[in-house]
């Protein structure tokens, strides 16, 4: 009989790029923790490089990045490229000030879901649960 | 029986005979009504709520201690607030064009938004910077770019506010260098550098160096301008970003004053000067939210507290040291991406709060800012909101028109009382620098932000278009996109500058910055000014300072 692997449900939350607005990232970290996830909160000023490194070290099952500076397209594109290169194949969720017309672009790049301003916490938790569930 | 006793009896009769039977039949909308601060709001306020209340002690008259009613004797009857929209994006040309547009539609002061690389001391071709060039503000890596930002703008006439903190000296030095190259001496320059590093650690996160060298850097700017640039406001001590991060009104003003107290202690010590030598030029920056009366009360409470702090804690003699001069911005976090036009109504109420609160300058957010940077069209509406308040509403014709409202006076007292408690808490910790290292204000703010969000989730805090009266689709609005060419333009010009300047002079000047940084007693302004003048870039100067001072890593907050 094979032993069932424990459910880890570990998520990495970070601010990607130089943007310092961390209210959303912190609130989401608290909400995910209250919902039973283990969250590694990496804080501000993260590069695609530092994010992928921590994702590997911590063996997370999903990555959530928050960007409010308008530089989401290039940053997320580089993050996904680097993650694939290093074999980090976990779903990536993007939150922040993302104009509606960019949502589709981000999804085409491979983003699992985009969470614009005003997204209810229940939806955030549901999206991460789905992201991890689909992976398993 | 005194009048108050009569009133007390009358109110109790009214509660039992009029109100109670009615609410049994038609209950009120909620069991408990609360403000955003969490204060329980009563059905009605009367003289009993300001019972032990001495008019002159609590309010005074406009322009007199404790300045509750306003800092000037005539307020807006004499001089209106400055209409100052925070703006900047892309390259220096884009921003210069936006400024000239703003001035053409009636803006009365400038406010520069710098991009994140400029704020964090990276040149635009640095790998971490490249993504962010020109995105949330203008890229100004060198004096040559500052010159373009101010092309055809009369620097001797206009007042310019600059949201710049970790690289404030570099940026002010560039501004001075450009002005002087046009024959405008630094002594006549009017404006403000935000230069408030403590709130960067607390809420805004655009810091570079650890707290101690950063405090020295900030205070050096304060001490330098006190001597050489009498019209310059060297610091804008900011609660705005704390409010944006989740702080309640009392936290916003208390944490701001705790920061201010720290700067004053450092400046007195480092400059060996009397508090009145620099305190008149300290300025402040707060948010205005939609909760109108509480926000007005916040501004009034803040003025009264500041006057008392300066007089009683620091022994200020000059009344200019005791007055709270502040800029206000409508609260960005209240903007919704859903039904964005509704934001115009929110910002109008917020701007009204700022004006009824006696602000000295005002930025009104644009309706599209939960989606992107504002367009010319949306910014114009923001300026018009201010003009309608100023020219049509009549709220500016008398000073502090809400003064004497039982409710607003009660709120003012309550907010002040709560703010003093926070301030005392931080004093007990040994001041804000220490509290920041312990993560105390960061934690309090994050907790408040989460509590707020939970209330939005359960509907306790209704937001029109988000959790009530929501519509399925986000309507299309025109969005400003930063032209990617701007980045290429900035970088190619920067490379040309690096190739054309006198390399030896730059190297010597950067050595001068390094030596100054290593010697605790030297003021940083002049060495940085010398470096900027010979064409050293913001990235080069910050790199030297990073080497000497190190970089700050935020403490674990949770």
Structure description:
- The complex is a heterodimer of chains A (136) and B (558).
- Chain A is an alpha/beta fold and 136 residues long.
- Chain A contains five helices and five strands; from the N terminus they run E-H-E-H-E-H-E-H-E-H.
- Chain A has helices at 23-34, 48-58, 72-85, 100-109, 121-135, and strands at 10-16, 38-46, 62-67, 92-96, 113-115.
- In chain A, strand 4, helix 4 and strand 5 form a beta-alpha-beta unit.
- The longest helix of chain A is centred in the last third of the chain and has 15 residues, at 121-135.
- The model of chain A has no long low-confidence stretch (mean pLDDT 92).
- Chain B is an alpha/beta fold and 558 residues long.
- In chain B, helix 11 (249-271) packs parallel to helix 12 (292-313) and helix 20 (503-518) packs parallel to helix 22 (538-549).
- The N and C termini of chain B lie far apart (57 Å).
- The interface between A and B is large, with 34 and 44 residues.
